[in-house]
Every structure is written in C-alpha cells, then in structure tokens.
Amino acid sequence: MTFSKNESLCKDELQAWQLKHLKETLLRVYHLVPFYKKKFDEHGVLPQDIKTLDDIAKLPFTKKHDLRDNYPFGMFSVDMDQIVRIHSSSGTTGKPTVVGYTEHDMDIWAEVMGRAFTMGGVTCQDIMQNSHGYGLFTGGLGFHNAAERMKIAVIPSSTGFTSRQLLLLKDFGATVLTATPSFALHMAEVAKAEGYDIQKDFKLRVGFFGAEPTSEGLKNEIAHIWGIDYHEIYGLSEIIGPGVACNCKHSNLLHIHEDHFYPEIIDPKTGEVLPEGTRGELVITTLTKQGLPIIRYRTGDITSLTRIPCRCGRTIGRIESIVGRSDDMLLINGVNVFPSQIEHVLSKQEGITLNYQIIADKKGYLDKLEIDVELDEHLISDDVSYLGNLKKELQHALLNNLYINVEVKLVAPKSLQRSEGKATRVVDKRAK
C-alpha cells in the first residue's frame, strides 16, 4: 500500500489546498460557533481578512479552557443529529473537554491513522493487539476503527491485566502492538518475570506508541526488548485523537498530516510565530473537520517543525518527538528542565532501568530536584562503593546536561509504582 497523493504534494499545491480549506473553516466557525464570532470580533479580524497562510497569525489562539468554558457542546459547528461519536478528556483539573465527530470527521480520522499504519508497513495480513484504553479516551477506538477499515484483525485488549495481555499476545500471534511506551516497558518486565522468552514466544514485528513524551533511549529500549520497529504516533483529542503525526521507517521525525492539521510553532511566552527548525509550542488549526473545527489551538507540546522533504518521498512537514509540555516543564532555580532531558541521561547509564520518578521540592528558599531511579534487577552487586560510584556518575551526567545539581536516589527494582496508561513521572511538592 502506497501513501496518499496529499502526502506528496509540491509546496505550491499543498499551500493552495491549505489556504482553500482554511478559508472555508474560518467562515464555518465564524457563522456557526458563537465563541469564535465573539473572539474574532474582539480581535478585530474577519474571515475575509485571511488572504494568505501567513495571515493566520492575525487570528486569536484557542486554549483548553475555552473548550471547558463551553462545556459540553458549545464549540460544535453542527447540530447534534450530525454527530456520530463523542469523546472527552478525563477532566482531572475541572470539567472535561468534549469532542464530537461527524461521519466526515470519522473518515478523516481513519484516513490519517491508515497513513500511520502504512508508515509501519502494516497490512491486512497483520494482527493488532490494541492495548490502549477504550471508552471516552480517544486512543483505543482511534486505533481500532482505522485498523478495521484496513481489514486488520484487531484484538481489543485495552489496558491493564498485564498477564492476560501477554497470554493473548502469545496465543493469538499478534504482529502489531499499540500501547503507551511506559505500558510496553511494563509488559516486557512482567513477561520476563513470568518466564516468557520475548524473542521466541511472541510474533511482534512493529509497534505504535504514543500519549506521553518519550526519550530516544526509551524508544530504543522498547524496540530492542520486543525486537520490533518502533513507530511514534502523536495526537490529541481536541484535534482528532491519535493520528495527527507519525514517523516513517526513514526518519525519527514525525510526519504531520498538514493537509488536515495546519501546524505552527510559537514562543510559548510571547505567542510569536517562530521560524522552521526552532523549538517552541505546537499550535494546530484543523482544516477539514466539521464537528469540532479548532482555530490555532495551543497544544502545550514543545517541539520543532521542518518542511524538508523526507527520503520516503512524503513532502508534508515533520515535527520532532515531543520534548515535553510547556505546563510540565520544571523551573528549577531559574533553569528550565524537561523530564525527557532526564530520561535521555538515564538511558545511557548501565545498571539502572528507565523506571524513575522526578521529585521537585524546596530546601529553604531554593528549589531542589531528586530523581528516584530503580536499579536493574540483573545488577549483581551490593557493593556500597559500586552503588556510590553509580550514583555519582549519574549526578555528574545530569549536572553536565541540565546545568543544575540533582540528588539521585537509587531504589530497589520494581519499587516504583507502575502505570497502565500515561506514566506519572513528575511530583512537584513545591506548591503544596
């Protein structure tokens, strides 16, 4: 199966497509979504003022709280009789964000997910074990529906019940795994403990992982442990769900489907649009969605964008793996620290695992940072001097990479809490 025509448009063709659909979307939201009419009027901008793609910078941003303020269906641009699917966030910090899909939107979702599967070489000959959560979370059903449309056999195992997951993985002969990176690592850990020979007992050849920022080291570890090709998939419910971007076999950068989702990179503090190649906050405008079109949505995800064509032949833009979130970034005594930076350092050190927790606290008036890291269970040493040297090596490496002092605490194997979904890596005690 080859990639679609829109993935390989020349620059002029792609920009013409984007501008046409941007103008249509702006007219749609201005006349059908009261929130956007009010927002545009307050900023003194009308849909007809947008004559070029660069003019998008004149438009106001949309933020997560805007969706919450218009709970549940105030951001929809169609009547409810056209909505065929409703998802929502967990709402852990207030009312959930609600997203709705028309039949047309479901087709787009299946299309971009199908593109991702194609990047991984998945065909109707494969069996996919879908270990993402089903329900209001978009992950499980986003993978499931697209796979079924491609005639891929799906095992809807969802999350949790790790021992049963492994049993199904072995007995049903799945060749494709979808999960969060942390759960994939946890599954491998349990498989070893239960006596599986991972390379012989399972038939996996490719995996799609997402929903949490992940270092290159952790990706390589998962690929190595399971003996698979690792594909990172990026998405967020407000835009469509999983499938906004995915990497092909030729690059670690993620192809973003910018014929459907127009990307910008901004300075998270000033809102200024940054040039290509510069790291900042990803902003996305939907170009083809009907149920919940969104204008300049601030994702909070930190990345960079390039439109240099990939060796695979696709010409759509590519983003780097999400470095972290602007709201997850830790400010430690004036220094910006992302969890992925710490994970990158840990991934290069032997004798430890990538099960860790970051704890920010106060010591007097100063911030302090502690990293609890599990020792590798195969480490055969209770030598105090060896463990002391290991701790010093880690602290030195973290200082060289983060430019701050970090207290490393080596803890026993399997002593940190495991996650079946997104891993909770950071505990910030300073605000408590």
TrEMBL record:
It holds the Pfam family AMP-binding. GO terms for biological process: phenylacetate catabolic process. Keywords: Ligase, Nucleotide-binding. Pathway: Aromatic compound metabolism; phenylacetate degradation. InterPro entries: AMP-bd_C_sf (IPR045851), AMP-dep_Lig_C (IPR028154), AMP-dep_synth/lig_dom (IPR000873), ANL_N_sf (IPR042099), PA_CoA_ligase (IPR011880). Monomer. This is Phenylacetate-coenzyme A ligase. It comes from Sulfurospirillum multivorans (strain DM 12446 / JCM 15788 / NBRC 109480). The gene is paaK1.
